[in-house]
């Protein structure tokens, strides 16, 4: 059965739009100079904590893999040139370009056209050492009119930089789940560039619960009209952790839809989270609808949450566009209500945070994963806030 996916560069060839948030995408490393930290796309990132990931240093490091692939799904090794030729947008920054250059090869996760894959496709990547940098290159391709859920889980200790391409064929439906549950000493940078076909749907979930520094960049464009991209995220940062999530939705076709909802919580001294969202509505993208939302809940003193939503609109012929952003502490009214019903403060705080994240976790279509995420949120609360209240 063919896996036809019209996701070539020609399918969404557009005039480049100058943007300080999004340099022109290219695989050419020379076009992505070593940053100083003053550039807009780097000003929130503690560059020294990237442990040399911005240097051009080839490495033989690797992550352990554990796979669960239904019968119709394949994972094959391909060359870097073959990965680039499959289509999708080139890297937007130096980290993406370095991963694409130094990975040594790529993996193609292929879901055939018209397949209805009811079991989750699982890829578990585990780091075992900080001694070597690990470069990764992955292509996830789902064929026309297919349906599937792909879960990519990260754990262990590593210094890891990956470039991932996601190609969603016409009429296909893909749920893509990234779980970043690293050990506290891990560094993880990743760029995920997705192309959504005509009348196709991509739902991406990103859960960041561990690591010393995690910086991910998700970028979406459309290969035809009628495509939908829903990007959901949850992050929970503890003392000293830096979690940075950057999102860019490029409406390159008319009558497309995007919806972005990310929620985060912070606790502990020098916990720092960054969320940067940007939506570009091109002249050709008439009749589109978009909304982006980021909410942050600060649980203790000494934390910092940066939240920057952006809209770039080149046409007035749109169905709707908006954004919302907030950073705040517990809702005093909710706490008062719960305390007035005889609930202890520690338990009341736990209920508020659970409710804050619950609508995102409930969207996950893998029940055991949703239960695991709920449990991990509980563990994060036990780690700090509830100890203070004891």
From TrEMBL:
NCBIfam families named in the record: sufD
Family: Belongs to the iron-sulfur cluster assembly SufBD family.
One Pfam family it belongs to: SUFBD_core
Domain of life: Bacteria
SUF system FeS cluster assembly SufBD core domain residues: 132-356
UniProt name for this protein: Fe-S cluster assembly protein SufD
InterPro entries (UniProt xref): Fe-S_cluster_assembly_SufBD, SUF_FeS_clus_asmbl_SufBD_core, SUF_FeS_clus_asmbl_SufBD_sf, SUF_FeS_clus_asmbl_SufD
């Amino acid at each position: 059965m063919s896996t036809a996916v019209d996701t070539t560069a020609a399918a969404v060839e557009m005039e480049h739009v100058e943007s300080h948030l999004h340099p022109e995408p290219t695989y050419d490393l020379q076009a992505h100079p070593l940053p100083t930290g003053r550039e807009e796309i780097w000003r929130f990132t503690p560059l020294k904590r990237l442990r040399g990931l911005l240097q051009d240093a080839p490495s033989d490091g690797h992550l352990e893999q554990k796979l669960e692939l239904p019968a119709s799904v394949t994972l094959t090794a391909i060359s870097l040139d073959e990965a680039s030729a499959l289509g999708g947008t080139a890297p937007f920054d130096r980290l993406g370009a370095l991963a694409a250059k130094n990975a040594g090869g790529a993996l193609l996760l292929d879901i055939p056209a018209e397949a209805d894959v009811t079991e989750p496709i699982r890829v578990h990547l585990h780091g075992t050492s900080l001694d070597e940098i690990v470069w990764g290159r992955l292509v996830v391709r789902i064929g026309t009119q297919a349906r599937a859920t792909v879960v990519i889980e990260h754990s262990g200790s590593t210094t890891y930089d990956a470039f991932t391409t996601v190609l969603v064929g016409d009429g296909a439906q893909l749920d893509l789940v990234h779980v970043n549950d690293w050990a506290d000493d891990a560094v993880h940078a990743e760029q995920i560039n997705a192309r959504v076909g005509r009348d196709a749907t991509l739902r991406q979930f990103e859960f960041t619960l561990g690591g010393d520094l995690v910086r991910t960049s998700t970028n979406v464009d459309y290969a035809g009209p009628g495509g939908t991209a829903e990007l959901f995220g949850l992050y929970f940062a503890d003392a000293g952790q830096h979690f940075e999530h950057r999102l860019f939705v490029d409406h390159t076709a008319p009558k497309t839809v995007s919806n972005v909802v990310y929620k985060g919580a912070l606790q502990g001294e020098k916990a720092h989270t960054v969320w940067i969202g940007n939506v570009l509505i091109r002249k050709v993208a008439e009749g589109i609808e978009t909304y982006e939302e980021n909410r942050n809940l600060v649980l203790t003193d000494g934390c910092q949450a940066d939240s920057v939503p952006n809209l770039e609109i080149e046409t007035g012929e749109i169905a709707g566009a908006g954004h919302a952003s907030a950073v705040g502490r517990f809702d005093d009214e909710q706490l008062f209500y719960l305390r007035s019903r005889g609930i202890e403060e520690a338990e009341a705080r736990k209920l508020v945070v659970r409710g804050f994240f619950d609508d995102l976790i409930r969207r996950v279509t893998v029940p055991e994963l949703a239960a695991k995420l709920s449990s991990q949120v509980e563990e994060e609360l036990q780690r700090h806030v509830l100890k203070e209240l004891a």
